[in-house]
Write a structure and sequence with these properties.
single chain, 227 residues, alpha/beta, 5-stranded parallel beta sheet, 3-stranded antiparallel beta sheet, 9 helices, 15% strand, globular, binds adenosine monophosphate
Length: 227
């Protein structure tokens, strides 16, 4: 099913620890289903880079691998959801990350007669996440994600998609910070798996496999959830 045949804007959530592949998969779903990927991590990094008040408050927490306050994250997301380009539907990547954020999202959607179509948990082993995270990098020009071992560009240091040659690695992808990020996930975000199971919209995908296999599984779930 494509964006033209969707009856109402879809709201999909990708849950999973850092390194599970949320960003990579969200970008693929965005292209395939005409949805817009909304990554609160990307929005916060943009706020930090722009030096906004929210960015200044978020910077140290992000560098330490903790979670930015619900207040800041909700304000940034609510602003983004008011823009016109999200009307066809969204894939939330890295949001919600706390119970309070999940409840706030439900309230925001109620106001627009929408609901969460599916929350997909990308299930992975913690032990593999450090390797996955510490090898990843992104094209500065178009945002395409790569990995030293799992998804190297065809020509070293050159983006397959846009030909850009400037690659960036995230400051919080250092091995020291990854442990704190995994801890924050288990303490504050993993309980959302039960939250969405209770609402009947939880789906699970084994995300330890190849990127293409995970994408196939997700395509089936998203097609069914947006029918
Ligand atoms: P991500 O790009 O999703 O891995 O997010 C990078 C960092 O941004 C996280 O480690 C948090 O510090 C912060 N962050 C992103 N999304 C959220 C959120 N929904 N709630 C709180 N902090 C967030």
């Amino acid at each position: 099913m494509d964006a033209m045949t969707m009856t109402r804007p879809a709201v999909l959530i990708l849950l999973g620890p850092p390194g599970a592949g949320k960003g990579t998969q969200a970008r693929m779903l965005e292209e395939r289903f005409g949805l817009v990927q909304l990554s609160t991590g990307d929005m916060l990094r943009a706020a930090v880079a722009a030096g906004t008040e929210a960015g200044q408050q978020a910077k140290a927490v992000m560098e330490a691998g903790g979670l930015v306050s619900d207040e800041i994250v909700l304000a940034i997301l609510a602003d983004r959801l008011r823009q016109d380009d999200v009307k066809a539907g969204v894939i939330l990547d890295g949001f919600p990350r706390t119970g309070a954020q999940a409840e706030a999202l439900d309230r925001m959607l109620e106001a627009t007669v929408q609901r969460v179509n599916a929350a997909v948990s990308l299930d992975v082993d913690d032990a593999a996440m450090v390797e996955r995270i510490s090898g990843r990098f992104t094209c500065k020009g178009c945002g395409e994600g790569y990995h030293d071992s799992f998804k190297a560009p065809a020509v070293a240091e050159t983006c397959d998609k846009c030909g850009g040659t400037e690659m960036v690695r995230r400051a919080d992808d250092r091995a020291e910070t990854v442990g704190a990020r995994l801890e924050a996930y288990h303490a504050q975000t993993a309980p959302l798996i039960d939250y969405y199971a209770g609402r009947g919209v939880l789906k699970r995908v084994d995300a330890m496999g190849a990127i293409g296999q995970v994408a196939d599984d997700l395509n089936g779930i998203v097609a069914a959830a947006t029918r």
